[in-house]
Amino acid sequence: MSMKEFVFYQPTYYKTFGCIGPDCSDNCCHSWVVTVDKAHYLQYKAVQDPDFQKMCKYGLVRTKQGGSEQDYARMALRTDGRCLFQDEDGGCHIYRVLGPGSLCHTCTVYPRMEHQFLPGRWERSLSLSCEEAARLALLNGSIVFETIPHTVDFADAEDRRLAAAPSVGGQHAGEIQAAREGCISVMQLHSRPLPERILSIGLLLRRVDRLGAENKLSELPAMVQEHCAQTEQGAFAGLFDKMSYSRQAHLWALTLPAQHLVKAMRRPVLRRVWEQLMPLCTIENSKVTVGPEALEFLLQQAAQKADPFLQSHTQEIENYFVNYIFSTLFPLTYGRSGLSPAYHGVLLAEQYALLRILFALLDRQEGESEEQWLVRVVVALARVTQHSDLGNNVHRIGQENQLDSLAYASYLLR
pTM above the 0.85 mark? Predict the structure, then answer.
C-alpha cells in the first residue's frame, strides 16, 4: 500500500473548535450561499418523512445548467435570510433528523480553512466570520502554532486529496514563506505599539518587492530575520513623526475603508453604522459618496471612542491580525489580481482603520461584556472583508491620490 508523510500546521485553537449550534447568537445559517454536493442532495431527497420532504421541496434548489458534483444544488433562504432547514431555536433540522455526517460539504467545513502552500504541509485555520471561531482565536492569549504529523493512505479518497501537489506557492514558495513568517513574527512583537508593527510589515514588504525586482529572492530569509530584529529593537519607533502630514491626504486615505463600509452597510450587523454615517453622505442615482464631512466624523469618532479600547486590548487585536495573515496566505492574498507585496501592507492598515471605525460606531449592547463586544465587532469586520474586491480598490485609490504604499498605510494608522 502506497503511503506518504506530511504535516498539518495550525494554531493550537484550531483543534478545539466545534459548532455550538443553537447557543450561537449569530450563527451561519443565514445570508450565506450554501452549495450542496450531489451525494448529500440525494441523501436528503431520499428521506421518507413528509415534513422533511416538504422542506426539501422548497429548501433545495438545483443548480442551473446541471452544476457539478460539488455544486449540485443550493440551500434556499427564507424572506428574512435564514436557511429553510434552520429550526426556530437556531439548530439545524438536517443534523437533528439525520445525525452526524449528514451535513453537506459547505456546512461541514465552515469555518475551517486549509491551504497547501509548501509541499507536504497543509495549513489549517478558522474564519473569524464565525462567532465561536473568533472567540477561540481572540480571547486565549498569544496565538501559538503547532505541527501535527500525518501519514497519507492512498486507499483513502480524503488522503489522496491531501497528497496532491500545492495549488498555491509556486517557484519561490520557500522564500515567500520566510516573508509570511516574518509578518507574523513582527505582528507578535508585544513590546512595540500595534500601528508601529503594521507599518513595519509595510516596510518589510517593500523590501520584499525590491529583492523580487532585482532577482535576489534568495536573500529574502536573511533580510526578514534582520528586519524582525530591527523592529524589536525599536528602529522604526519614530517613523510616524518623520513622515510629512497632509490633512487632505489623510481624508483621502480614509476613502478606502469608508467605501468598503458603504458597500456592506445594508447588512443587519452594520445597521448602526449605516444610521450614523448615511446622513453625512450624498446619494445620487443610487451611488453613495462619502465626502469630507463624513470622513471628518469618522476620524473624530475613532479617536474619541475606539482608540482607548484598542490600546487596552492590544493582545486580542494582534490575534485578529495574526489569524488574518496566516489564513489568507498574506502577502499573496491579492497577488493574482496584480497587487504587489508592498501594497499588501495597505491591507493590514485598512483592516486597522476599519476596526477603529467599527469600535467607534457599533455601541455595546445592554448586558454585553467587553469581550462579547470585541468578538461581535471582529465578526462584523471579517464578514465585510472576506468577500470583496479590496485588492483592486487599494491600488486604484492609491494611484488616484498619488500615495505610495508606505504613506498610504501610515495615514490609515494615524
Answer: yes
